[in-house]
Amino acid sequence: MTDATINTVTISKTDIPSGGMKSYKQEDDSIILITRDDDEFRAFDGKCPHAGADLGNGLRCGNRVVCPWHHATFDSRDGSLLEPIATKGLTQYELTHNGDNLTVDTSAQVTGQVESDKLTDTHTIIVGGGGAGFMTANQLRQGGYGGKITLISKEDKAPYNRPLLSKAFLAGKMDEDKLLLGGADWASNNNIELRLNQTVSEVLLNEATVVIEDDDGNSERQTADFLVVATGAKPSLPPITGAEIDGVYTLRSMSDAKLIKAASHDQHVVIIGTGFIGMETASALAQAGTTASITVIGQGSRVMGNIVSETVSNALIKLHEEKGINFVFDATVKGITKVNRQMDKDGDNNNQAFSNVGGVTLANGEHIDADIVILGTGVSPRTEILREVNDPDGVQVDAHLQLRDEVYALGDIAKASNQMGRMRIEHWRVALQHGMVTAAAILNDDSIDSLEARIPFFWTMQYGKSLRYSGHAETPDHNILFGTPDTHDYIEYYFNDEGEDTRASAASTLGRNKELVAFSELLRRGHAPTRAQLNAGLDIIEQAHALSP
Question: Residue 324: in which H helix or E strand, if any?
C-alpha cells in the first residue's frame, strides 16, 4: 500500500479474501475499509461513526460488518446502517481497478441521494427527546420522509447521548456540546420542529392527539397522522427516610449530571446501588478526582449481581477498590440523616448545589458520614400519560412497536418482542433499535428488520475498561467462564439452566470483543452455542463465519 496523493490510496487486491474485509490506517489517522465479494470491491470510511472504532478489527458475517466496540452494524455492499449504536451509515468512496491493485479516492464519495418525497402531506408527532425519539425522527428523514416532524421534550436541551453522562461527562472528559446527537444543528438541518421545555400531559390514543403544556401553564392540542410516544423512564426512589433531602441526587438527565458535578467537589459521596449506573458513577467521579471520598452501598454481596457472575463481580470490585472506592455490602439503608448545613459550590453554567445531608444510617445501626448521596436504585417507565394502557411493567406493543393504528410506543416504556422474547429493556441500543423499527413502519419499509430479528446489547465503561453484554439472561448463575476477569480478559456465557444441550442466551466480555460479536451474530440467527459445544472448545468466530449467508 502506498499513498499516491493526499487523497488517493493504492491497495493490493490479494490482501483481501472474498467474503472478507480489511482496514488500512492512513498517516492522517483516517481509516479506509475495503470489502470484497468475488471480484466486487467496495471502499468505505473505516471508522465507526459512533465512536471511531476501526471496523477492520470487527467481524464480517455475510453482508454484515459489525463494529468490535458497540456492535453498530453496516451493510458491506453500500455501508447503510443495519444496527445502531451508530446513527448513520458509512461514507463510501470511489475506487478504480488497476490490474492487481485498487486505487481508492477518498475525495470522491459515492452518494445515494434520498429524495424527501414520502408522506409529504402527513404530520408525525414524537413525544420524548431521548434516544428512541431522536432515532425515529432521524431515520424518518434519512428514509425520505417529507412530512412535518414535531419532537416535544420536557428538557431544555436538544436530544443528547444520555449514556455518556455517567461515563465521560461526569468524569470531566467530554464537554456538553459533544453529547448532542447529530450535532448542534441537527433539528434545523433536518427540518424538525423541536419543542423544548414542554410537557405532554395527556395522550388520546384513539384520536392520535396530544395535550401539550408549556412552563407558563398554557396548553394546546395537536393531532398527528403518526404519533410516537417515547417518554422514557424516571428514577425509582427507594422507601428510605430522608430521600427527599437537598443533597440527595439521581442521575438521569443532563441537569442531574451537572448538579452532581457541582455538588461533589471536596465532598464525601455515598452512592446507593451497585448496578451499572451506580458503578459508572463511582468510576466517573473517581476519575474526575474532585471528591473527598466515595462509598458504594449494596444490598447484596456483589456488584452488577444480576448481570455477571460472582467471579466477574469480584474483579470489578477489585478494580474499583484499587481506585479508592469503599464498599459496604449486604447492607440495607434505613435513612438519610439531615443536618442544618448549606453547601454552596459553583458548577457548570453557575449551577448552585445545596446539601443538607449528614450521612446514611443502615438497618444494623451503622452510620456512614456523607455530604451528598446519589441514588442508583433503578428506574420505572413513564407511562402515566398513556392512561388507557398504563402498566407498571411497560406498554405491550407489536414487533413494529405499534400500540394502535399509527400510534407507537417505544424506548424504555415498551414491552416488545425481540429475538429473546417479550420484555421491557432499558438499554440505549435497544431504544435506538426501536427508533429504526418505528421509522421503517411509518415509511412502510419492509427492508428494515423488525424488532423480532434483533437482540439487545449494552456496555458499561469503568476506568477505561469496557464491559460489553449481548443478549438477555434471567440470571448469571448458570454460566461458563473463559479467561481471567482479574486481568480484564474474559468471556462469560449465560444459560437458563445447567443442561448440556441448552443454548446460551447471553454473554459478557472484557477484552474478547470479536468473540462477543460472533456470539451476537449466532444468537441473532438462532444458532447460539450450547453448553456442550462451548465446553468442547467450539471456535465461535469460525462458527459465525460458517453459518453466515
Answer: none
Q: Is 22 helix (H, G, I), strand (E, B) or coil?
A: strand
- Rounded Cα distance, 44 and 9, in Å: 12
Summarised one tens digit per residue, pLDDT across range 478-488 is 999 999 999 99
The distance of Cα 191 from the centroid of its chain, to the nearest Å, equals: 25
Name residue 2's beta-bridge partners. Answer: 10
Please state the rounded mean pLDDT for residues 239-265.
Answer: 95
Helices and strands (DSSP H and E) totals, the chain: 9, 40
Using an 8 Å Cβ cutoff, are 279 and 306 in contact?
no
**DSSP string computed for 333-375:** EEEEEE-S----EE-GGG-EE---EEEEEETTS-EEE-SEEEE
Q: State the pLDDT at residue 308.
A: 98
Radius of gyration for the alpha carbons in the chain, expressed in angstroms and rounded: 24
Write the CB contacts of 448 (distance below 8 Å, at least 6 apart in sequence). 436, 437, 439, 440
3-state DSSP of 59-86: EEECCEEECCCCCCEEECCCCCEEECCC
Query: Smallest Cα–Cα separation from 162: which of 143, 181, 175, 186?
Result: 181
Confidence of residue 349 (pLDDT cuts 50, 70, 90): very low
> What is the C-alpha to C-alpha distance for residues 200 and 230, in angstroms, rounded to an integer?
11
- 3 state SS of 453: helix
pTM for the model stands at 0.94
Angle, alpha carbons 285-291-295 (nearest 5°):
75
CA triple 221-223-229, angle to 5 deg: 95
Distance CA 260, CA 294 (A): 13
Smallest Cα–Cα separation from 292: which of 343, 367, 364, 251?
343
Per-residue pLDDT tens digits for 401-444: 999 999 999 999 999 988 778 889 999 999 999 999 999 999 99
Q: What is the reported pLDDT for 342?
A: 53
**Beta pairing class for 40-45 and 31-37:** antiparallel
Report d(CA 21, CA 56) in Å as an integer: 7
Cell numbers standing for residue 75:
451493510
DSSP one-letter string for 185-254: THHHHTTEEEE-SEEEEEEEGGGTEEEEEETTS-EEEEE-SEEEE---EEEPPPS-BTTTSTTEEE-SSH
Cβ atoms of residues 151 and 123 within 8 Å? no
